[in-house]
């Protein structure tokens, strides 16, 4: 199967929302996803045979990029698509003269943490009890990738 990375538009919101709902314990609403199509944002998707399989959303303010979301449909996980999205957004951040990419991730999301660590992200701090869980709360791990 051939995968391609494409810039997404509001026309992709319904498909993005389905993936978002399937992947996250506390997913973004459709309205929040829609708000990510402003001039400070870059939204990219990975497609195969006309179907959206995953996406990333970054916000850039001057030289700082925040990874707002990276999400791959459960049926397409394990194919390296998250890595492709991450590699692309890092390259774009460099092209737009960013000096750092920041993100936060649930402490239980070990696959995402592994992906970020392999890409060079390092933990900078934690937000204790930030994310709700079914039986309480868990920490948010804050990670940065310094671009040189």
UniProtKB/TrEMBL annotation:
Top-level division of the source organism's lineage: Bacteria
UniProt cross-references to NCBIfam families, sorted A to Z: rimI
Role according to the record: Acetylates the N-terminal alanine of ribosomal protein bS18.
InterPro entries according to UniProt: AcTrfase_RimI/Ard1 (IPR006464), Acyl_CoA_acyltransferase (IPR016181), GNAT_dom (IPR000182), RimI (IPR043690), YpeA/RimI_acetyltransf (IPR050680)
All residue ranges annotated as the N-acetyltransferase domain in the record: 3-148
Protein name: [Ribosomal protein bS18]-alanine N-acetyltransferase
Stretches of the chain forming a coiled coil according to its record: none
GO molecular function: protein-N-terminal-alanine acetyltransferase activity
Stretches that traverse the bilayer: none
Record bears the keyword Acyltransferase: yes
Residues engaged in binding acetyl-CoA: 109
Subcellular location(s) of the protein: Cytoplasm
GO cellular component, one term: cytoplasm
Top EC class, one word: transferase
């Amino acid at each position: 199967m051939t995968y391609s990375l494409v810039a997404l538009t509001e026309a992709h919101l319904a498909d993005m929302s389905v993936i978002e709902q399937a992947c996250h314990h506390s997913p973004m609403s459709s309205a929040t996803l829609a708000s990510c199509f402003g001039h400070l944002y870059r939204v990219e998707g990975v497609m195969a045979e006309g179907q959206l399989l995953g996406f990333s959303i970054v916000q850039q303010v001057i030289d700082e990029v925040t990874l707002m979301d990276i999400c791959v449909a459960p049926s397409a996980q394990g194919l390296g698509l998250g890595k492709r999205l991450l590699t692309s957004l890092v390259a774009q951040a460099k092209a737009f003269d960013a000096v750092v990419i920041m993100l936060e991730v649930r402490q239980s999301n070990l696959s995402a943490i592994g992906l970020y660590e392999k890409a060079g992200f390092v933990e900078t701090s934690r937000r204790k009890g930030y994310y709700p869980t079914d039986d309480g709360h868990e920490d948010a791990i804050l990670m940065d990738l310094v671009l040189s």
